[in-house]
Amino acid sequence: MACVMDKEEVRIDISSLAQDGHEIETGTSPQQMSPLDLLSGDRDLYLAVCIPLYGAAMKGDWKTAKGIFDLFPTAVRLTITPGGDTTLHIATAAKHVHFVEEMVKMMEPEDLELQNKYLNTAFWFAAAAGIVGIAKAMLRKNEILPMIRDYDKMTPLHVAALLGHSEMVWYLYNKTDHEQLNVCDWVKLLNACISTDLYDVAWDISCHHPTLAVERDGNGETALHLLARKPSAFSGGDQIHIWNTFINSISCKRVEHKKNLRPNKSLKLVKHLWQQVIVQPHSEILDLIRSPSPLLLVAAELGNTVFLTELIALYPDLIWEVDNHNRSIFHIAVLHRQENIFNLIYEIGSMKDLIVPYKDENDNNILHLAGRLAPPRQRNIVVGAALQMQRELLWFREVEKMVLPSFRERKNRDGETPWDLFTKEHKDLMKEGEKWMRETAAQSMLVATLIATVVFAAALTVPGGSNQDTGIPVLLRKKSFIIFAVSDAIALFTSLTSILVFLSIVLTSRYADDDFLELLPSRLMFGLITLFISIISMMVTFTATFFLLFSHGVTWAPILVAVFAFLLVTLYFSMQCRLWAHIIRATYCSRLIFRPRKHILY
């Protein structure tokens, strides 16, 4: 590390700081001295000043730093690292507000303009750190800091936007001289705000600079290209998001409802940008949406429904757009299992009959695409290989209804019909689904067997015993005994029922393709429901038993048992509820994902 001064020749007496106590002289102009030269030549200066200042700045130890500055006032301008960072750079990066405020008081305005070897000022570090208090302290001393650019010609505002510091971005947005920013700067800033979800800032920029809608950044992308890849920006109205919220709530996961205007702002931003684009000539519109990537088809692949519908609603001709493989947005939706995009096909009337027959260069029609294995991200929407197989079958059958009968047997260039392709692609998944279904049923059957054993034993040895002459239970007339008898019977019958259901899954199921569609999920769901009822009934049986045994003794014992029984049931449900939610969806709600009642396009 090095100490470099931006002054003329200077004599420094640091005998009280140096470890060996001798005097150090610097007789060379620092402008002619590289940090490494000074590091190797003035080791005592480095050890006595640079290291203590660096440590104090990192820890926010203003007392130690001030002691050094009092002995050596010009040290406030020293660079203390090989990268040319001053103490102010380090303290700012470490986010020590008080340290920076005190140090700024000791500095001249031009001292705040010192840059390291990457041309970063301490103010640039403040923007990167996102600490508005530090930025305010510096700006009170020097107002031109927001316009000092780094090595890549980026302003502190752009850096704050790239790192997603919303409060800092708004502060610098109002402190930066907009007149000194060119079109390239605004494009970079707009795209940076979109990338880091700062849609309120992006909205304000687009309103003041509407022509940015057609401007491209260094990668050739417009703001719309970035928004096409961000379905999360519009998740507030997304059906998948709503379903996932439902799943998470069933799964006992906390769903935080944040007061966030992001979906609203991002939607306004898309509308505003697209309105500026569609006034361009048709050829320029096509060039924008196709290059450098086909933003419509990217949005379809990622399930960016809201974005896509906004563009199509204002410019219906986009419905005919295809990629380099002659695939429309509906073909892409089928290939990537994006049901919300696919459902738009039911809103375009007879036009679907012209789009559905499209084939790619390998003669794969839309049903062939449904026969391909879904990407892992889409398969993992549901848990368990069996339910994933069920979802894949559901997609294939839904697309099969839409195509002409001749398409169902039409072969691609590899000589495969859609069903041939489906069977080949899903061969491993079907084996995994069978294994998962058998294991789940076997594990659940073990629990049901244990419950049946326990409650059967409880029925034979009633609490309180029986009258030896009549065989009638001694505690028969107590209400707790009636509860015990009824709950024990329910637990016994439901556990035996679940055992039979799970046995049918393990032993007698064919595990044919279509069995995964309804039969197996329905059986598994029924078995799990009866198992859960048996668990609850068994807990009630135990509680009633303790109430009977302690009816004339300690009353807190049965209450304690009841509490633990409730906790046990709750624990079991919390571990199984996510699986149950997915099975319910697969069994009873899966068909509702297609042909929704509410139209979202027109």
UniProtKB/TrEMBL annotation:
Transmembrane segments: 121-139, 440-461, 481-503, 524-550, 556-575
Key word Coiled coil present: no
Transmembrane helix found in the keyword field: yes
UniProt keyword list: Membrane, Transmembrane, Transmembrane helix
Entry-linked InterPro entries: Ankyrin_rpt (IPR002110), Ankyrin_rpt-contain_sf (IPR036770), PGG_dom (IPR026961)
One GO CC term, this protein: membrane
Segments forming domain PGG: 434-547
Database matches in PANTHER family: ANKYRIN REPEAT FAMILY PROTEIN-RELATED (PTHR24177:SF292), CASKIN (PTHR24177)
Name this protein carries in UniProt: PGG domain-containing protein
Organism the protein comes from: Vitis rotundifolia
